[in-house]
Amino acid sequence: MGNYILQHDLENRLTSAVLENLTGKTGNELSGLLDGVIARAEAFVNNYACVRYRVPLPEDPLITEWTLRIAEYELYKRGPGGNVPEKIRESYKECINFLNDLAKGKFRLAGDPPKPAGAGNSVSVAPAGGRTPRFSAEAMKDF
Question: Which of 33, 70, 112, 113 is deepest in the core (most CB within 10 A)?
Answer without folding.
Answer: 70
